[in-house]
Amino acid sequence: MTSIAGFIFDLDGVITETSEYHYQSWQQLADEEGLPFTREDNEQLRGVSRRVSLMRLLKGREFPEAKLQDMMFRKNQYYKALLHHVTAKDCLPGVEDFLHDASASGLKLGIGSASRNARAVLEKLGLIDMFAVIGDGYSVVNSKPAPDLFVWVAGGLGLHVDQVVVFEDAEAGIDAAKTAGCLSVGIGTANVNHADIVVGGLHDLTVEQVLTQLSR
Ligand code: BG6
Ligand code: MG
User: Fold this and answer.
1) Does ligand 1 come within 6 angstroms of the Cβ of 137?
2) Can you give the pLDDT at residue 130?
3) Whose CA is nearest to atom 13 of ligand 1?
4) pLDDT tens-place values along the chain, 216 residues long
5) Is-contact 196 185, C-beta < 8 A?
6) How far apart are CA 95 and CA 77, in angstroms?
7) How far is the CA of 113 from the centre of ligand 1 (A)?
8) How many other C-beta atoms are found inside a 10 Å radius of the C-beta of residue 81?
9) Which ligand has its closest atom nearest to the C-alpha of 10?
10) Residue of the nearest CA to atom 11 in ligand 1?
11) How far apart (Å, rounded) are the C-alpha atoms in residues 92 and 100?
12) How far is the CA of 212 from the centre of ligand 1 (A)?
């Protein structure tokens, strides 16, 4: 039997609600460019890289590379401005207790986020020292739903992928975890029903429940 030895957490939408700030930043860009974009459209952007997000927002409209770069830069400026307000109070409910319990249980903890702002967000939340490995938007070439990021973080933790549970709020993230061969916990209201466990948030779950329900 392989025992669970590590947890890898997505950041936006799992640890903190910055997914809302990503949405507001894309909405501002879309409005400025006169492009149709709704909160429902934004669900397709959850968990995927900045560039893939822009491509999905553009829905097949073509632009020169310089214009694409300009749009990604502006979106990131709007997002970073929203991050100014983030403090330790912005951890989602139950997150700090869950992380401390996991650490006290001897589990290795990592981050697997598509975001290039992940380290800055973790600093603001006061959580950066909780994680032995931080995989972010710079760590691998192929972003979620490719399995690469979770394989990269598991390897950094010194673990095999089947010793790891991934916590994710995005369909692309659960797909990535499953393709990597990790166990998975789906968080929130997006399409994460294909995860091994599905809960509303980390406040709905204990470390003990994860270990008991997913041991194989
Ligand atoms: C993911 C978010 O964590 O990071 C996406 O769910 C976001 O919405 C992606 O687009 C990339 O983030 P960033 O900060 O590099 O633009
Ligand atoms: Mg997420």
Assistant:
1) yes
2) 97
3) 115
4) 579 999 999 999 999 999 899 999 999 999 999 999 999 999 999 999 999 999 999 999 999 999 999 999 999 999 999 999 899 999 999 999 999 999 999 999 999 999 999 999 999 999 999 999 999 999 999 999 999 999 999 999 999 999 999 999 999 999 999 999 999 999 998 889 999 999 999 999 999 999 999 986
5) yes
6) 27
7) 8
8) 12
9) 2
10) 115
11) 14
12) 32
Region of residue 34 (phi > 0: left; psi between -120 and 50: alpha; otherwise: beta):
left
CA of 128 to the centre of ligand 2 (A): 17
**DSSP string of 113-155?**
-S-TTHHHHHHHHT-GGG-SEEE-TTT-SS-TTSSHHHHHHHH
Ligand 1 pocket residue status of 113, Cβ below 6 Å: yes
Q: What is the pTM of this model?
A: 0.96
Q: In whole angstroms, what separates CA 155 from the centre of its chain?
A: 18
Check pocket membership of 50 for ligand 1, CB cut-off 6 A: yes
Residue burial 160-169, b: 16+ Cβ < 10 Å; e: rest: ebebbbbbbb
* Residue 91 DSSP class: B
Check residue 41 and give its pLDDT.
96
2 DSSP 8-state letter = P
What's the gap in Å between 48 CA and the centre of ligand 1?
6
**Token pair of 38 as six digits:** 């709704």
Residues annotated as catalytic (active site), given as ranges: 10, 12
3-state DSSP assignment of residue 182 = coil
Q: Which atom of ligand 1 is least distant from the CA of 10? A: 3
